[in-house]
Amino acid sequence: MSWPDLARVLGQPAPYRPFGLRIATLIAAWVPGAPAVTYPTIPGVDVTSLLRLAMTLPRDDLAHRVLLQTARIAQLGSTAGALLDLQILAECEERSIKFGRHQGEVTVVAAHPLPVPEANDEALDEALRRTGWSAILARTDQLAAECVREVVTWDGGGDFPFSNPEEIDPATEYGAEWAARLEPIERTAAFELIDFDGRQETLTDPETDAPVVREPNGMLLAAIPQWLATFSPLAEVIVDTPIWVRTQDGTLYPAPKDEYYGLSWGSYARSGQGSLALLISRLLDDITAHGADSITGAPDGLEKLTQIDWPSGTVLTRAQLEAARDGHPYVEE
Questions:
Q1: Are strands 210-214 and 220-225 parallel, antiparallel or unpaired?
Q2: Are 244 and 238 in contact (CB under 8 A)?
Q3: Predicted local distance difference test score (pLDDT) of residue 180
Q4: Residue 16 φ/ψ region, left for φ over 0, alpha for ψ in the -120 to 50 degree band, beta for the rest
Q5: Is residue 112 within a helix (H) or strand (E), and if so which, with residue range?
Q6: At what angle do helices 62-98 and 126-137 cross, to 10 degrees?
Q7: 32 by DSSP, 3-state: which?
Q8: Cα distance between residue 118 and residue 232, in whole Å
Q9: Are 118 and 76 in contact (CB under 8 A)?
Q10: What sign does the CA torsion over 152, 155, 161, 165 have?
Q11: Residue 252: which of 325, 331, 168 has the closest Cα?
């Protein structure tokens, strides 16, 4: 039914509420002729758990600050969405009257969003936000786990230190080397990223603090770090499943990965080769660099290198990677 038809049936303008204000109690309380109410919109994330956990922490604690900022950003986004809905409604009404589609008012706004102060992103830069969320992910209480679940559902956990998980086979050469250092750990909120039912064996990689679970089939499911916390420079990249990097001190890591962009190699037409080339370029300069957040931006030589159909397990040394970055052809060592 169109809004004009609804208004004719009702014999008066139909009450309109922006999407974020379609709340049962407000709808039930409305009566014809009532003035529009002003009320907070329903944010895209249930902020109740965020605010409850924040209230248990000191005001100057980074975790407290990041929880409040996350709640405010979610509320601000929902409020902006409601204001946009009202703007679109007004424009539609204006066009309909202009072109003679109806006469008189068709709708009456029944609810306006309560204004929300701007969330000050500069007050908590990326490094501070990640530090705050790292503390929350390390907690063992159920409320922290609820916060992690809510944020993952909302924005995928972009400020978390870990990205999407990878399944690692501990029977393979590099999988076995990495798995040998895993340690048992009490379940923390970080495991909400990879183990939703809480029934798996919980482990951690002490080099990255990444949560790992052992699945019933023996495979290991690991959250992949978005960056590496080491000062040892990049020594080699191993194209495998997953892709690995080794630092000059001999430590093997799953290649850091952005929460959105995946990594791959080969001549088939996919985007992961560009992300891998960009990651390699970054790690050559800074081993602590964030995972590739784009499929473009790497030097041409590295992009060509990642488009080669390497056999799984191929090791690309730092010298080979630097030569490719500088535009020189690949040479076996």
A1: antiparallel
A2: yes
A3: 97
A4: beta
A5: strand 111-113
A6: 110
A7: coil
A8: 40
A9: yes
A10: positive
A11: 168
Q: How distant is the alpha carbon of residue 259 from its chain centre? A: 5
Residue 35: DSSP 8-state: P
Write out the two tokens for 186. 């009490």
* Tokens 């990689």 belong to residue: 205
Question: In angstroms, what CA-CA distances link 84 with 30, 51, 91?
Answer: 22, 26, 11
Q: How far is CA 255 from the centre of its chain?
A: 18
Distance CA(139)–CA(63), nearest Å, equals 11
Mean pLDDT within 66-95: 91
pLDDT at 4: 78
Would you mind telling me the total number of residues written for the chain in this entry? Answer: 333
Radius of gyration, CA atoms only, the chain: 26
The DSSP-derived string for 45-99 is S-HHHHHHHHTTS-TT-HHHHHHHHHHHHHHHHHHHHHHHHHHHHHHHHHHHHHT
Chain position carrying tokens 């907690």: 139
Q: What does the longest C-alpha to C-alpha distance in the chain come to? A: 84
Beta pairing class for 234-239 and 220-225:
unpaired
Convert the pLDDT of each residue in 253-274 to its tens digit.
Answer: 999 998 888 899 998 757 899 9
First and final C-alpha spacing in the chain: 72
- In this predicted model, which residue has the larger pLDDT, 101 or 135? 135
Q: Let me know if 225 is exposed, middle or buried by CB neighbors in 10 A (0-12, 13-18, 19+).
A: buried
pTM of the model: 0.82
Exposure string over 32-47, b if 16+ CB within 10 A, otherwise e? eeeeebebbbbbbbbb
For β-strands 314-317 and 234-239, DSSP reports them as antiparallel
146's CB contacts (< 8 A; 6+ apart) are: 49
What are residue 211's DSSP bridge partners?
Answer: 204
pLDDT at 100: 66
Dist. CA 269–CA 248, nearest whole Å: 32
- Within 13 A of 198's CA, how many CA atoms are on the CB side? 8
| CB atoms closer than 10 angstroms to residue 165 | 21
| Beta strands, E only, the chain | 14-16, 37-39, 107-109, 111-113, 162-168, 183-184, 201-205, 210-214, 220-225, 234-239, 244-247, 252-254, 314-317
